[in-house]
Amino acid sequence: MLLDTLSTKALTARTLIECGMFGPTRPDKLVRALKALKDWGPTTAGGYTTSSIRYPDDVSIIDEAGSLTFDEVHRRTNALAHAWSDEGIGEGDNVALLCRNHRGFVEAMVACSKLGAHALFLNTAFAGPQLAEICAREQPRAIVYDEEFDELIGAAAQDSRRFIAWSDGGTPPAGADLLETLIERGDPADVVVPATKGKIVILTSGTTGTPKGANRKQPETLDPIAGLIEKIPLRARGRTLIAAPLFHSWGLAHFILAIGLSSTLILRRRFDPQDTLSAIDEHGATALIVVPVMLQRILELGPKTLGRYDTGSLRVIAASGSALPGELATKVMDTFGDILYNLYGSTEVAWATVATPEDLRAAPGTAGRPPRGTVVRLYDADDEEVAPGETGRIFVGNELCFDGYSGGGQKARIDGLMSSGDVGHFDEDGRLFVDGRDDEMIVSGGENVFPREVEDTIARLAGIEEVAAVGVEDGDFGQRLKAFVVVREGATVSEQDVKAHVKENLARFKVPRDVVFLDALPRNATGKVLKRELVKLP
């Protein structure tokens, strides 16, 4: 065990040195940075404190309000933490964040870390009743939100202090204070390290029901970061454009990676495909962090528009948050080069596997292989590990698996590993393929059918923009799939075309009973299709 631990630490050190995280530093700064890292640990507070020591004048954040250096972010978050402490907010308190991607979200999160408070991430796409239900359950001491959500959070914020993170007018609504005002009046001196680290509570996407709060402790070591960097070649002091929402586990993962690497964050409040290309060009972004539907929207701009922008600075395009169709992966790499990485995981297990460009070229649609420090196994209904090539429930183990739902409850566990909620299979080269949600499987004619296989097949039909399938009752087969299809502009596809294509490629019982054409699929803020909404459609 000791040798394994020493080997892991050696590999972590080598990886972090090679990526530039531990580059040359003036001796006095190095001593101060190491002390800060020892005091704070690998938390968001520790990351910004150490970067402010090593690279105080380097740009830390670029958003629509301008830019901030690492030293400015460090002092501003100190001031915010002190101001919140004066307001009675402290260690162990919940602070809810309902913000888009901008400096206010980052500064509120870091201030929570410096206080030992828990940061509760609220989804900007949630409706008022959902927010009220979540806040009644989580009982936040304060809510930090963008002014555009003021009416939405009315019931949710009735028992909480309210702070505006982003205001276009500069005047807060009644009963709220601007975050900027607190920062201006707060003490920028260093904060005393809290006795316990604050947690980050990420809400599940709620694609099949009420969102749950997943308690995610901040990492204890740098091993998980090193394991991911081995797979996704991010480099220190790069420029990372995070287009994926920061409140989602995928955006958060790259926020944490960027902190550890002392990288510049490029943030935009709303995703716009052409603005994203413009930001890459203007700021020389080296990494682009997206959910797959964003890549689809970028490619839809067409070659003429794409050609207007210089994206040659990009070294990594990293996608996660929902399924990455193989055809889309190939098109992205044909357009931007073999720099696409696809990560599979969940709110509860963090990450499970990463597909490199080599994986995506060799096996389009794959979720890849586990990074170092992560174990992935597949189990059948009797909790027995399945044979190679067979489909099973996906279970994951790593340092970042969540601590349980904030309202109580856990995901299923086997042999110390946690369920991701999906089913999948490994190919002969050890690459994982995710076949669908374990609760979406239907039994048709006595055979197990997973929507993902049928969706991928329909997606390969010419003229199809996107597709989703759900299970419905069927008199002949017990259950069949119902497909919801979006046709590409200018294309003509009929219900018979879809059924015939599936019949040519899959077993008869996998042919959808019905095909419904829509203008767009309902999605949440992270690009996941809301199948609960599709089930309601006639």
From TrEMBL:
What protein family does this chain belong to? Belongs to the ATP-dependent AMP-binding enzyme family.
Query: Which Gene3D superfamilies does UniProt cross-reference here?
Result: 3.30.300.30, N-terminal domain of ligase-like
Catalytic activity, EC: 6.2.1.3
**Residues of the signal sequence?**
none
- Mitochondrion in keyword set: no
Q: Where is the AMP-dependent synthetase/ligase domain?
A: 54-405
| UniProt-recorded name of the protein | Long-chain-fatty-acid--CoA ligase
Which residue range or ranges hold the AMP-binding enzyme C-terminal domain?
453-528
Keywords (A to Z) from UniProt: Ligase
Taxonomic superkingdom: Bacteria
Q: Name one GO molecular function term.
A: long-chain fatty acid-CoA ligase activity
From which lineage does this chain's organism come? Answer: Bacteria, Bacillati, Actinomycetota, Thermoleophilia, Solirubrobacterales
Q: Please give one Pfam family short name.
A: AMP-binding_C
What enzyme class is recorded for this protein?
ligase
Matching SUPFAM superfamilies, A to Z?
Acetyl-CoA synthetase-like
